[in-house]
């Protein structure tokens, strides 16, 4: 097996992932280039009913998780579920003070002190301002995210009020997002119901890049690094607004919407699937008032920005708010993408999916001081968050350590390199994770479990056309 794997990997294989942490309970001995791949690998004896083993992109053998949600809940100390309204409000106050202080320092002290310096120096200073403001703003985004899950407070009214205000200030439609995000949590890793970063099938990828129906990815040459970079930049800058406007990266099975409002609607511009229309197939009729309230929040923030532009100039408002806003969107997309896209991650067809399997198909990463303190641990404790989303972020580290004992080899983390390792993972996942297909030769339930493959010659290659034809016919 090791010989086979070595042949399928290029010498330039990414090393951005880490070995298992000391806290992990995994006993896996499978060779691995990443903590995430190791923690879902197993050399245990395979069940004959599944035929050949399931292999992730790195070539590590995968076993379907076999624990229960009750075991997860029982393992978490009871006090981890406790929510402190006062503590949560304290974090809101802290982040708003950071945002206000950062603005005041640059606007009234730092930039005036650089008045005689070259314009490039002032531009660089405003760049530092925007970066810091975006990190503080993303922290506010995460606190609103806590509100959406009910992890902020025991009061639903307070959760909704604080979440609506904070998200509206960041041009996020709070309830619209809350409803669709809740569906994402209920269907994580489900190829036909998940709401975000649903991977393309081999057929979908082929239609887009190999010239349409009748062509296959085997006809494509390796994607050039510049093409990957362009795609990545577009994803980071445009991914969030496109998701809100046209449901990009979400599932496209809207015809199944229970009230029938999804018939004839599909993702993309003009497809009538978005987060602002009460008639969108993402929602039901009972959600209409919440979608409208979300829109009112967005409209209020736009009005404030318009008034600010009239008073201080549109360029100033763009520097003070617009650029940090774009960077907040970048951090949001980066975090979400890397929580659900990795060469070790499985996805499931409906017949093989359940809640526990989907929640386990996530990965914790590490972003150093920024992730732990400014982004409230959303990067480092995402696996636990998917199992129990009402646990407040300040208890999530302890909950994570507790669930590792239950998950064992199924817990994954990629922590090597800290913040730089996190950023490198954007490139790694973009190169390695292009479409999904089942492992060659699998049978039974295992055929419904798919893994990332790519056209770049990295890791396990896509199935040969002959094998794929047999698999499809079966």
TrEMBL record:
Is the keyword Zinc in the record? no
Q: Which CDD domains match?
A: Delta12-FADS-like (cd03507)
Q: Which domain of life is it from?
A: Eukaryota
Report biased composition (Low complexity) as residue ranges: 11-45
Which locations, inside or outside the cell, does it occupy?
Membrane
Q: What is its main location?
A: membrane
Asked if the Swiss-Prot or TrEMBL record annotates the protein with the keyword Oxidoreductase, the reply is yes
- All residue ranges annotated as the Fatty acid desaturase domain in the record: 125-413
**Pathway(s) of this molecule:** Lipid metabolism
Q: Where do Basic residues bias regions lie?
A: 1-10
- Where are its TM segments located? 123-144, 290-312, 318-338
Residue span(s) of domain Fatty acid desaturase N-terminal: 30-99
Q: Which UniProt keywords apply?
A: Membrane, Oxidoreductase, Transmembrane, Transmembrane helix
Q: Where is this region: Disordered?
A: 1-54
Similarity comment: family membership: Belongs to the fatty acid desaturase type 1 family.
Q: What is this protein called?
A: Fatty acid desaturase domain-containing protein
The species this protein belongs to is Discina gigas
């Amino acid at each position: 097996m090791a010989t086979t794997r070595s042949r399928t990997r290029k010498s330039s294989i990414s090393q951005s992932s880490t070995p298992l942490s000391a806290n992990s309970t995994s006993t896996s001995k499978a060779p691995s280039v990443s903590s995430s791949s190791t923690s879902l690998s197993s050399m245990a004896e395979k069940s004959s009913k599944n035929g050949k083993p399931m292999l992730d992109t790195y070539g590590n053998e995968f076993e379907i998780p076999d624990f229960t949600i009750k075991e997860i809940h029982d393992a978490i100390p009871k006090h981890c579920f406790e929510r402190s309204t006062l503590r949560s409000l304290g974090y809101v106050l802290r982040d708003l003070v950071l945002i206000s202080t950062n603005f005041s320092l640059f606007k009234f002290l730092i930039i005036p002190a650089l008045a005689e310096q070259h314009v490039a120096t002032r531009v660089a200073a405003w760049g530092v301002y925007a970066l810091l403001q975006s990190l503080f703003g993303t922290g506010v985004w995460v606190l609103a995210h806590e509100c959406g899950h009910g992890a902020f407070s025991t009061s639903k009214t307070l959760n909704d009020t604080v979440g609506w205000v904070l998200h509206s200030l960041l041009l996020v439609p709070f309830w619209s997002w809350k409803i669709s995000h809740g569906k994402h949590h209920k269907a994580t890793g489900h190829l036909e119901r998940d709401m975000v970063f649903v991977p393309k099938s081999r057929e979908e990828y082929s239609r887009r890049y190999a010239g349409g129906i009748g062509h296959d990815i085997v006809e494509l040459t390796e994607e050039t690094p510049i093409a990957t970079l362009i795609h990545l930049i577009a994803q980071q800058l445009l991914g969030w607004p496109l998701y809100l406007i046209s449901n990009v990266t979400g599932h496209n099975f809207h015809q199944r919407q229970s009230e029938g409002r999804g018939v004839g609607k599909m993702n993309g511009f003009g497809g009538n699937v978005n987060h602002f229309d009460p008639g969108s197939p993402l929602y039901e009729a009972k959600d209409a008032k919440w979608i409208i309230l979300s829109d009112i929040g967005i409209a209020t923030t736009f009005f404030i920005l318009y008034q600010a532009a009239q008073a201080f100039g549109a360029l100033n408002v763009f520097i003070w708010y617009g650029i940090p806003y774009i960077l907040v969107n970048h951090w949001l997309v980066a975090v979400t993408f890397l929580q659900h896209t990795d060469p070790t991650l499985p996805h499931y067809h409906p017949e093989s999916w359940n809640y526990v399997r989907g929640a386990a198909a996530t990965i914790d990463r590490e972003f150093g001081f920024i992730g732990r303190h400014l982004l409230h641990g959303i990067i480092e404790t995402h696996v636990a968050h998917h199992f129990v989303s009402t646990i407040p972020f300040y208890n999530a580290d302890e909950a994570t350590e507790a669930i590792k004992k239950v998950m064992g080899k199924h817990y994954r983390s990629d922590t090597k390199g800290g913040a730089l390792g996190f950023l490198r993972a954007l490139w790694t996942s973009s190169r390695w994770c292009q479409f999904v297909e089942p492992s060659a030769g699998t049978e039974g339930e295992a055929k419904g479990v798919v893994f990332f493959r790519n056209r770049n010659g990295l890791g396990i290659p896509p199935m040969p056309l002959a094998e794929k034809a047999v698999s499809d016919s079966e």
